[in-house]
């Protein structure tokens, strides 16, 4: 018995929370490269904002497919293996972008590569989530959410800022290869993690039924339903930040200023916001912190929409909104992690992750069309209004379905 217990413990080895800055950065880097670097470069080459928003949307679309990836991970390889394989594939897709001339004739291939980058990046996220569930206690996950979200948003800054600076000073080909190399580097901490083998010794149908039971249990409980509601509503998305490079001209921002502000500086600004969000979720229910952060994000967007159109204002308001979105993203991750159990962690995490990204993708496409008609101010006002409305809806539902009311309803 003692030997079996020791062997079981050897199978579980967490990684230090700060290392999630690297693993979380991988998906963010591919996103930043598409949204910031390609967004700016394609705008300079005559692509319309609708076409750019469509490309960004394709990179984000697999965020809504994580529910497909989760069961596959739970039923097959370990999180470490899935992460490493997907990281290499995401890096390869990023590097391939460097060999395209980036002309209108390449739109279909650009979209295909952006979609593939999104698929492999999201498999990495699902594998990371499953690893966290298998190696950390629930009370530790709020702080870990800060590190993973900080890595993700810092990665957006690296993939966008360093990517755009390299693209404008050296060339897009070199830029793509640099970000591809960074993706490979970000994968190394996952070599350290150890988790139990998927499926253990049970037959596959038994394991599959267990996964289904966990999903039903989540969707049939008060806490589970509020969790699903909180990640599905468009709260604290910050989707307009992904489109800022294509409209930075409204603030008379140069290519270098756009690259540094929406890239590295934005990534650095988001990290303290993420750590703050993780700390808040360690002390308060993450769902309520998400609703509160959504209102704060809306205020930041309104301030930028009504503020002066100068390069300095562009820098200050962009960094402010990245801090606020950092808080929001950490709360979303904390909501997902709080809903995990070791059993079916990949499936539940993927389901919640997919749901949380449906509004991001929808908002990105929406803002692309709004921007064509109402400009940058209309984009920010639209997202702010929807964020406040969503926070009010969640607050009302949480109050109406508070524990005593739920018990009375069950008794009736």
Automatic annotation (TrEMBL):
Domain of life: Bacteria
Pfam families from the UniProt entry: MFS_1
Stretches that traverse the bilayer: 20-43, 49-69, 81-102, 108-132, 144-167, 173-193, 226-247, 259-281, 288-306, 312-338, 350-370, 376-401
Keyword Membrane on entry: yes
Gene3D superfamilies, sorted: MFS general substrate transporter like domains
GO molecular function, one term: transmembrane transporter activity
Descriptive protein name: MFS transporter
